[in-house]
Design a protein that fits this description.
The structure is a homodimer of 192-residue chains.
Chain A lengths: L12 H19 L7 H8 L3 H7 L3 H24 L4 H18 L1 H8 L6 H23 L9 H16 L8 H11 L5
Chain A binds a DNA duplex (30 and 30 nucleotides) through α1, α2 and α3.
Protein name (chains A, B): Transcriptional regulator, AcrR family
Keywords (chains A, B): DNA-binding, Transcription, Transcription regulation
Organism (chains A, B): uncultured Rubrobacteraceae bacterium
Chain lengths: 192, 192
DNA sequence: TGCCATACGGATACGTCATCCGTTTGCGAT
DNA sequence: ATCGCAAACGGATGACGTATCCGTATGGCA
């Protein structure tokens, strides 16, 4: 079974090599905290021309999406697990914590989750899958009285992004994420 | 009593006029939804040279701060009122709702609140005032059992920014703000 | 081995930020 | 009134990033 995300099929050998190099460099730079990620410097560091970068990734958005695919797929898996959990309330809490933590660790994933559009078809599909699973989860959680009414799957997405944002708006103490996730988790419970 | 923010004292007549024009144009553009706010187009629309814009406002940050001063001062007033409220829990909730609503209505204020640094001394002072008042409010709210322990004034600032962000991450339904504010308000209550 | 579709690379056009400096102008002094 | 100069002006300019375009190079199949 081939990876769903490789896309290196049908590519000429040099093309596949360059694509991989660009992705690798971008991943390093992102991990090193360079949120700007200028395309021309990526090209330089990868030892290719700018044109080559743009051919593989028509925009920075597309590049970030490609970097985030793995994390996005894992998130969808988690969402489905949560949706099938015997205890939907617990599943939702677990998913929320997993989601915000992933976004803190992976800036690219955070960028993809917060944008409603997408440069790659694959991303749209995953977004749909995610919202579907979360929707199912929410429905069960509502029935179980674990969550207040009026909160939809997209609210969960947006609020998660907001919490991640709140963590980043600060002097970089990314450990706050658990505390802030607490606030979100408790905030969506039914009002007492 | 002179306005604290005019700053047009000591300015030559033409300088004061240009400064006002720039501010006016920037405010219009911001209200019209242009979040980019390119300095050179502001200069063009205000009928001045770019240099003039930069002399008055060394960076876009500084310009946004100047625009936000009024809203920021009103926010501090609200915070102090809340800190003196007989019911600190109610005061906190009122302040939170006021704060997020203000940020939704005023992009400049949101920008200033989310940044920890500041281009103008006035802004630093206001930020200090705000955090002081919120700190006082939180202390009283904690004593009254209206808020969980471990949440500080800066957490409130960051979480508010996060909620505002969550509202903006979407297709522009800014009305969501009340629903999302509910989540924040309930999320910082003591755990039951 | 030769062909050519595919991919490469970097020159190029464009837009924005921010600065610098020669020119203009407001305004207090005379 | 007018003079002189500090203050302010304006826009040319350089640095930087995005995105495109096209002549050149090359991988891989016949």
């Amino acid at each position: 079974m081939k990876s769903q995300t490789s896309l290196s099929d049908d590519l000429r050998a040099d093309a596949a090599r360059n694509r991989a190099r660009v992705l690798e460099v971008a991943r390093e730079r992102l991990a090193a905290g360079d949120a700007e990620l200028p395309m021309n410097t990526i090209a330089r560091d990868a030892g290719v021309g700018v044109g080559t970068v743009y051919r593989h990734f028509p925009s920075r958005e597309a590049l970030l999406e490609s970097l985030a695919m793995g994390g996005f797929e894992r998130l969808v898996v988690e969402a489905r697990k949560a949706a099938d959990d015997d205890n939907p309330g617990a599943g939702l809490e677990r998913l929320l914590r997993y989601g915000v933590r992933s976004q803190i660790e992976d800036v690219g994933l955070a960028a993809v989750l917060r944008s409603s559009g997408s440069a790659r078809a694959e991303t749209s599909r995953l977004r749909g899958d995610l919202l579907e699973a979360v929707g199912r989860l929410l429905e069960r959680a509502r029935e179980a009285g674990a969550i207040r009414p009026g909160i939809g799957a997209d609210d969960i997405r947006r609020l998660s992004c907001g919490i991640v944002y709140a963590v980043r708006v600060g002097d970089g103490d990314l450990d706050e994420i658990e505390r802030y996730a607490d606030v979100l988790v408790d905030g969506i419970r039914p009002r007492s």
